[in-house]
Amino acid sequence: MSHSISASTTGANEFRRDINGLRAWAVMAVVLYHFGIAGFGGGFVGVDVFFVISGFLMSGIIAKGLQRGDFSLWDFYLARARRILPALIVLAAVLLAVGWFFLMPKEYETLGGHARRTLLFASNLRYLQESGYFDDDAHEKWLLHSWSLSVEWQFYLLLPVLLLAVWRLFPGRRAMVLLQVPLLLASFGVCVALTLSEPPKAFYLLQSRAWEFLAGGLLFLFGENLRFSARTRLGLEWLGLLAIVSAVVFLDSSSLWPGWLALVPCIGALSVLLAQRGDSPWTGNAVAQWLGTRSYSIYLWHWPLVAGLAYCERLESPAWVLSALFATLLLGQLSYALIEVPARRGLHGLTPRWAAAALLLAVFPPALAAAWIRETDGFPQRLPAAVGEIEAQADNRNPRQDECLDKGAACTFGGPSIRALMVGDSHADALVTAAQAALPGSQQGIQFRAAPLCLLVFGAHDVEKKNAAPCLALKRELEAELAGVSSSLPVIVINRTSVYAMGYNEKFEDKETGRPLVFFSSPADRASPEYLEEFRRHYVASACEIARHRPLFLMRPIPEMVIDVPHAMAKTMLIGAQREVSITLADYHKRHAFVWSLQDEAREQCGARILDPLPYLCDGKVCHGSRNGIPLYADDDHLSEFGNRLLVPMFAKAFASMQDAGEALAHRREDATR
Asked: Domain of 476: which CATH number?
């Protein structure tokens, strides 16, 4: 028995159990991926499956309406708005309400901006500017998942206009096909090209995603001429599901996405649609039907729960994740039963104009509130004063940071009589005012040069190349200054060296952990023994090159708290509790033992001197991120202007020993010339 794909797709009101079941597969792939469930590293492909389904259904609605002669752009847009807006409006309103009580000003301001863009179906463009799906701080974006709704809505705006224009000129499906095929090929080409050159654009922009919708649309338009036996349809379904499952299991956030790889889940979705097996045990069962019917609401509410777990530092707790998964299904059911269905029925009972007016009236309050929150910088006045004081430590940084770090200017801290040259990265910038405070006299000063993410090791290259030029310029100027500045002037090098060798370790951001930030011969995916040995050689050689010309002081790594200290403390206080932040000394040494060994080797080989902050920041078995309820850090690894004062005695001892260091260098030079 043969079966036509168009046989049961004769109108906009047709219900296909296989499509509903495929929605279930797609939404659960996305949900389980976002909750970090093992085995679902590529679950983000569920969105691509949704795009294919959407293109298939929308093309069907438009084509059938044009064939009947009753297609209306107004009715099409209104139907989409009735489907999408009610639950989305409620979600935005709930998040804005909850954020009032639990979010810090910057977070609340960001949420306001994101909510406004979400309700305008332009959030994908905002997130493109922030480049934030696989990148930094994704879990701090409570409406990040709305990017796909924005892309989908933008497609809805354009597709019917194009198809209607073509139909009026050349009635018939053939013209529709001839329009969509080149558009699909062009969009796919853009997708592949941008994935290689600018991945965020490939991910977020309609022009690089349209081919997925168009693929579904072309399947519908070709469908009425296709006939398959029951055995063939079974094979197509198995092939499609296997492709989708393979993508979910074998892809992950490090995959070059979307690009060519996106063909795998899209072809899988097309195969399942082509099979049209409404009685399939895989898509037609009761569980799949229940999930599929509620897939939109489940999708809407799951990500705020993921972000909420991350906000509360519970995303790695199996018990909390399991509870949040259950809450996702519960909220999906409640949203479907109490928002989606009643809103759809109520709006269907109104005339089109009144339905549109009702939707606009419902959108207006949360959109206005979101804009107000954005304009008032998150309305910090709503927070208790004590919470605001703690959160303010995040901004208690070097007041000359913009000038001396971000812009890379050569700066002098203190008086005109220069006692030392301090060089490094943002960790040097965070400590230079403490060194200034330790100077023996008001006329004495520090010459300071730093650049963001700049490891002061000659021959090291930035993997991401974001700060390659300023760092390279700094190293070149350092080499020139070593030859031109008085030989008695010591050099103090302060770097977050561990992060360059072994990657990030922050828990509050979505930075890729364990991947070195610099390379010497070729980039490394991990800190392998071979890589670390290469790092060691270059580090010691660079230190000894500096020490050959100047007295050299290398500072031990600052303890890294892993979490954003003022932010974590302020959040805890907001719910009426107190919190002190610290790490164990054992964890410190586990993170930084490699760097200590490098510095020890530089001390033994070429007389480098060591500045050790641990006696001032740690006691017993603990290194402190806060003391007496006050953060010592501006984030997770940079001491604040308050915290860096603890290191003034360390720098004072360094300045007191600099004359001895100069004499020791002179003796080494004499020994070298004998």
From this structure: 3.40.50.1110
